[in-house]
Amino acid sequence: MDIVVDLASWTRAGIGGAMIGIAAALLFSLNGRIAGVSGVLGTLVLDRPAGEAPWRGLFLAGLLLGALLMSLLRPDLAASTLQTGWPGMIAAGLIVGFGTRMGSGCTSGHGVCGMARLSRRSITATMTFMAAGFATVFVMRHVFGAAS
Amino acid sequence: MKALVALASGTLFGMGLLLGGMTDPGKVIGFLDLAGRWDPSLAFVMGGALCVTFPTFQLLRLRGRPLLGERFYLPTRKDLDAPLLGGAVLFGVGWGIAGLCPGPAIANLVFGSPEVLGFVVAMIAGMWLRDRVATKAPPGASNAPVAAT
């Protein structure tokens, strides 16, 4: 195995992660809500419980505002290198939406919040989607793909 | 006040996603590609987040209720069922194809890429499709309760 050692990137990742953690801790400690993006979005668009649209909409708007602010603060980090074309993006979007709705959460809800609560369901889900992610990239890159 | 908290939380979340590298699908695939040149950075994103959420969530459990609200909104289910596992597998596959999960995909919209917008629209369609399939399934093959994750 060849590991990319980049201490600056690891440090930014740790600080960025801590900011995500503080964001999730704020929402949970003050509002009592789980900062799970697929859940916040899915419930906003599909379940539409009365009176919950404002906070859900504002949280999602915040994601955009935060990304915009950080990309202005650190334009050098505002990179987005797409890994697949239109068919792959549409297929992946469909699968991610279907899967997170079916599995009750994604990286934020299960990974950042559920694991912190020591939820057995979230720990299992996180291990499962990580394993599926590793396996998918392995198959796409090293079994079928020509990329290294 | 609660609305303001949600906006602040989302904003901090979005800043952290970009700083951490999660909004770059190339970085995500670099992390998921164990057999290639493995970039472990994103493990530090999850680790950094858990360093904050683990103690906070555990302490809050002792308190019993949030500071502004009347109760914690938490999933009630404890069992491991097929939808949880199957859904997680599907999500992982989609994540591995595009290098985008829901939060970073939404944050990535600020870069104005039509493909990412397509991903987000397809993601919502996928959620809707799951509900269509689930409500047509026989009773017992149930959907998870509304409690949001």
Automatic annotation (TrEMBL), chain A:
Q: Where in the cell is it found?
A: Cell inner membrane
- Can you quote a single GO CC term? plasma membrane
The protein's topology relative to the membrane is: Multi-pass membrane protein
Q: Which domain of life is it from?
A: Bacteria
Principal localization?
membrane
InterPro entries documented for this protein: Sulf_transp_TsuA/YedE (IPR007272)
Q: Which UniProt keywords apply?
A: Cell inner membrane, Cell membrane, Membrane, Transmembrane, Transmembrane helix, Transport
Q: Which residues cross the membrane?
A: 20-46, 53-73, 85-102, 123-144
User: What Pfam families would the database entry show?
Assistant: Sulf_transp
The UniProt entry's sequence similarity note says: Belongs to the TsuA/YedE (TC 9.B.102) family.
Q: What is this protein called?
A: Uncharacterized protein
The scientific name of the source species is Panacagrimonas perspica
UniProtKB/TrEMBL annotation, chain B:
Q: Which domain of life is it from?
A: Bacteria
User: Tell me, what's a Pfam family for it?
Assistant: DUF6691
Q: Which InterPro entries does the entry link to? A: DUF6691 (IPR046513)
Its keywords, alphabetically, are: Membrane, Transmembrane, Transmembrane helix
Q: For this UniProt entry, which segments traverse the membrane?
A: 41-60, 80-100, 106-129
Tell me what this protein is called. Sulphur transport domain-containing protein
**Organism name:** Panacagrimonas perspica
